[in-house]
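Hi R.,

As promised, here are both runs. First protein below:
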Amino acid sequence: MTGPHIELNRAALAHNVAQIRELLGSDVSLMFAVKSNAYGHGMELIAPEVIAQGADELAVLDIQTGVAVRDVVPEAPLLAWLLEPLDNYAAASTHRLELGISTVEQLTMVAKSAPKTPLVVHLKVDTGLHRNGATANQWPEFFTVAAELERAGVITVRALWSHLADTSIESSLSALSRLQDAATTARDAGLHPEIMHLAASHGALEVPETRLDMVRFGILGYGVSPFDHHTAEDLGFRPVLTLLAPITRITEDTIFLGMGYRQGLLSPLTPGATIRVGHTPLELVAVEADHTVLRGSFSPEHLQEGMMVPLMGANAPGASVEAWAGWTHTIGDEVLVRLHPDIPRNFSDAPIDS
């Protein structure tokens, strides 16, 4: 390897899927989110692997990504929910995507696309987060139009769903109550969705009542915590990703690694970040365009240019994704999704604890 690369631990991913399945039990389905290039891990690798390991369904943000996922996962149910007016709704039908629908206007766009077979939709309602979804005053018209299109054979309403704000247990239970109210209004309009889903990683752990028929697991499935007060490993999940970068230059007290912000590495905003080279912790002093600069005392006789150094993640002691999130004053999701898609990625079959 002449540049940075990303190694994915297959055993860790399998462990996480199994952990989720045990948490949810046999009556709750697992929808695994592979949005944003599978949180920077590499969609083409992660999507088929999680289905092989026991996930029931997949989720992405947009139709274009859904079409790409369908190339590597031909059969599993696949939801795309962040829709735009100029999206290709016909492509969603052709590639058997399920769509998260939030407005009457989106229902109209589906009808205009004239799907040859009913397009499967998940009707989204706002339950307090205000991140799209039909609001309570819009429910009667929204559900009435959906029911008319279902009777006409244009759509099949499979699900009613929403997002949690994850700000408190009370807010999540309130959202659950609103979703149940929406379900009553939907039934009054003649709809009978097969399932309801509300929780993602955070809600599924903190408020079990919100698991309902299916949970959308995202960042925690990759071994990165959505919580401020617990690491993923505290919760029994293992980090999947390790970012490695080659040593490109060594001076008396400085090591340069071939990975920088042009490849998507965020720069720490506060002092104190350290990276281990071998067993030696070195201060991370700068993230430059194409290099990360480490400084400190080390024994150069065991180092050489081209040697790969774990810079972040599972095999980088003290430099987990969560640690990087702390150093850069953001969340683990943001640290990961910035990693450039052109960085080579591959699965490792090493044991989890190696």
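And here is the second one, sequence first, then its structure tokens:
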Amino acid sequence: MTLEQINLSTGPVNISMEVRNALSAPTISHRSLHFRQLLDDTLSALCNMLSVRHSFVMNGSGTLANEAMLHQIKTLGTKGLILSNGEFGSRLINQAERIGISFTTHVKEWGQRFELQELETILASGQIHWVLFCHCETSTGVLNNLDGIADLCIAYHVQCFADCMSSVGTTTLNLSKITMATASSGKGLGAYPGLALVFSNTTPLSSNSTPTYLDLANYSLKNNIPFTISSNLINALHTAIMQKHTAEHTNMIHQYSYKYYDIMHQYSIVPFSDRHSKVLTIVLPEGKKPVFTNFMDEKNIVLSYESEYLMKRNWVQLAVLGYYHEKQLDYAANTLEECMKHLF
């Protein structure tokens, strides 16, 4: 048994020692030139990584990033379409209702993918002016067709918005066709939770009805620092981006996510996933979940199974979102194989 805990949960994720050290560096003022340069470098790195024009960072979780994006959608004053095929699509619908946005929905069963032909029929009506959806629906791990939906939106002159919480940092992403997208520091970017991220290819609109803290136009006006932003969290995020997002690490993540999928696919327990999934939802036969989770816990491998929506369905999730050394991922693969033989 390894004495080292290996975090394969959906978040918070596995953190490198370098990122831990960056977090514990002395705090600096958000008004200092040093912080200005650090933030500029971080936002520039995100823009380059994702092929977007603007990046914004706020203190908060991914939910706050989605709130800021939804308030931008509200300023459009038009009717849109929100897609849902899981927990987090449903959350977007709930948030939009609370904010008072005009929209209709296209809802699929959890784990089902959106059919582009169905979406095209809706857009062809001419009644829809924007679309919002989750790229990776974290509750099931389904990776929705970002490029396909974005191309449809372009064809019908519709703006496209995406929640990319569990896809930014886990795969190569080009968001140049997306109006606006969101992420957080504590998932695929490999840093600590606490920073809400919004990526935009359009200039944010201001409205007196938008809460000041969520007003991206205010962030733009104030050169991205309207309020206090934690230098420690920015330093950790910058370090994580520079360290994790290399071809070598990305290829290793792909290799082992393929391996984890293959190990479990032969037992038909990852029904929503494929070899490209970085979030694998494990649906075990009756009575097998506690045996599985106890086995992995004893081997110091952290999985996700305590979220309300997972507990309700008796599901477990294994995700490869953080920063890892190959020996960690190899140990996890061997342990997973051992566990499958123990279970089946």
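A quick note on the second one: The longest strand covers residues 54-59. Let me know what you think.

Best,
J.
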